[in-house]
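User: Teach me something about this protein's shape.
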Amino acid sequence: MGESTTIAGQRRHLRPAAATPQVLALAAYRFPHGDAMSNRLLQLARSATPPGGVTLVVNDWPEDGTRPPSAPDLPPGVRLITLSRERAGGGVAGRWLHRSTRPLRVISALRRAGVRPKELTAVYLPLGLWNLLTWLVLRTAVRCPVTVDVLERHDAAQFPHGWFTPYFARHRWAFFLAGRLADRIIAITEALERHFVGVGRPTLVVPPQVDCSDYDAPAPPSLNDGLRLLYAGSAGTKDQLAVLLEGIRALAPDERARVRLTIAGISREQAGSLSDLDEASPEDLDDQVSFLGRVPRDRVLAELRRAHFSVLVRPTVGYAQAGFPSKVPESLAAGCPVLLNYTSDLRRYIVDGREGIVLDGSGADDVRRGLERALRLDDPGWRAMSRAARERAHCFDYRAWTPAVSDFVTAGRGSGTGSPASAASAAEVSRRSGG
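Assistant: First, the predicted structure itself:
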């Protein structure tokens, strides 16, 4: 398959002193700055690294036409081995073989880098990489606990062919296996925590994490010049962009004229296939809705600085309760308040009128009423909301989670009914939330 290994870090020889805790993280993304999954892995690696230890990320770079960076920007304590290969044929069978042999290739890459798998302190990986072969290889090769990071629980209704959709079937099979075979679980929401605790897995809730130092101070124009909204991400079937546009249309003409919405992540041409919009639906809002397409993270941060609110509308169904939108902590860290309805664990972090505007529901009229409230704000009122958003973002900073995550992954002091680390984290969040 033309397999090659790229090693990044302060030293090419990655084996540290024997007493140094070594944590292994597995991934298959455009790490470290490619997408939301890459950011999740990066911040989790930082918070999972024990004091004086290192986290070694072995990343199987996706075959999507992109290339891994030659000199990735890595934080202290994080090392990287990138597995890559020349594009080869083979179709579905070739992709299946490449995916199936990943755990074997990971172990081989570790040995070439001078890391003895049986000396690892802990291993963690996302649910998407968890399967029977991975479990068997890790169980054979390492002598440490294996933690699975679970970020979502898809519903069959999200997919046109339901259970007959291969991706969905693999997802649910991995979800089942995680509840039976993983040593412990990191869950992104309390809904997932309840499930895994119920099947006897030690579980720690870790919401999406950010590095607050990455975000500059917000600098939007005056609200007197209009209300600037931002949606950033891949909407897919999760986020209701059509309802958002209907809410804008439902405004009184003079209020509607003051609203500008930027959609970053999809182009107008992609709207029909990558969101619930059809290509013609925004035509009557051409002067108010702009599509940026896929843009780098720096551009997203720049758009957050210029926006008054980031917007997110999701239905209150199973997948929305199980997942946690990473765009919310990122928006808060940028000082951009959020306009959204409650799903997931958002009620724990977003207080209506403080860090954002909470909609009554997920319908077009709910969006309209929320926009009317936003349009009534003045600049001092918005700045107070922006300050509250930045303060709340510290609940998601990876530094606040380091003791709990590193202890849970490496020491495993949790029990099937909720770990001390999980309880401490929940108490801290509650304290910061005024709960």
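Now, about its shape. Residues 131 and 177 are 7 Å apart (CA to CA). DSSP finds 16 helices and 14 strands in the chain. If you'd like, I can walk through any region in more detail.
User: That's plenty for now, thanks!
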